[in-house]
């Protein structure tokens, strides 16, 4: 019980809640985008199963949190996946008979999309939570990590439902959501360790560390968002023309 009287514990708790709000919102957008075409009676199921997959992934990833993102080329692969998912979300549904799947197939298709995207996006979330928990000391780290995962559940579930309602009323939210994935992809690509010798760097907050120059980081984020928007719209425009 002494950990509840520790200032470091509550500081880490506040940091984890903020991380969940900032980074969990991205996951909510992904789940909402993937589930938006489901019938209303299946949307809640899609969100719940997608969220369950997200939480299971985070539990697994937390054990590798200190080494996963240090592996070269992992972020490059993840960024490419997010670009593909973002472009795909801007594509119109096919109208031919082969696209008329049963509702259950659509449900699991949406859940699969959620899990692939969430796997990529959960890496930064898990690392951030683990870093915040580390500041509270070794004895408190694992309880704080578990707390961070539990806090993320309502943020993702409620956030996904809110985003779906917004997309129903304002279709431009779909475009903005796809561009958000492009932004995340661009910032992931530029921070991959394999590119450290190619990307302009500056000294990091901790001694002996380096980080990407802010202007380069944001430029790649904007570039990723514009790439998804332009390629997605061009391919979407070609589909009706080909039909």
UniProtKB/TrEMBL annotation:
GO terms for cellular component: membrane. It comes from the Bacteria. It is found in: Membrane. The keyword Chaperone does not apply. It holds the Pfam family TerC. It is a multi-pass membrane protein. The keyword Transmembrane applies. The chain crosses the membrane at residues 12-35, 47-67, 144-163, 170-191, 216-236. Keywords: Membrane, Transmembrane, Transmembrane helix. Coiled coil: none annotated. Belongs to the TerC family. PANTHER family: MEMBRANE BOUND PREDICTED REDOX MODULATOR, SLL1022 PROTEIN. This is TerC family protein. It comes from Roseateles chitinivorans.
């Amino acid at each position: 019980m002494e950990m509840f009287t520790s200032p470091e514990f509550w500081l880490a708790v506040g940091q984890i809640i903020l991380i969940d709000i900032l980074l969990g919102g991205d996951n909510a957008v992904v789940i909402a985008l993937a589930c938006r075409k489901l019938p209303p009676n299946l949307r809640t199921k899609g969100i719940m199963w997608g969220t369950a997959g997200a939480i299971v992934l985070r539990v697994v990833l937390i054990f590798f949190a200190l080494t996963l993102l240090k592996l070269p080329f992992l972020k490059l692969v993840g960024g490419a996946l997010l670009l593909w998912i973002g472009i795909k979300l801007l594509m119109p549904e096919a109208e031919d008979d082969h696209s008329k799947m049963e509702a259950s197939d659509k449900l699991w298709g949406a859940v699969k999309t959620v899990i692939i995207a969430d796997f990529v996006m959960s890496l930064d979330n898990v690392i951030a939570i683990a870093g915040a928990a580390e500041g509270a000391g070794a004895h408190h780290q694992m309880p704080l990590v578990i707390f961070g995962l539990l806090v993320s559940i309502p943020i993702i579930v409620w956030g996904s439902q809110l985003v779906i309602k917004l997309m129903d009323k304002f279709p431009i939210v779909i475009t903005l959501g796809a561009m958000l994935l492009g932004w995340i992809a661009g910032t992931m690509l530029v921070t991959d360790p394999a590119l450290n010798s190619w990307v302009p760097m500056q000294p990091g907050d901790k001694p002996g560390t380096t980080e990407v120059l802010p202007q380069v980081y944001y430029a790649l984020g904007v570039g990723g968002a514009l790439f998804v928007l332009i390629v997605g719209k061009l391919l979407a425009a070609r589909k009706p023309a080909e039909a």
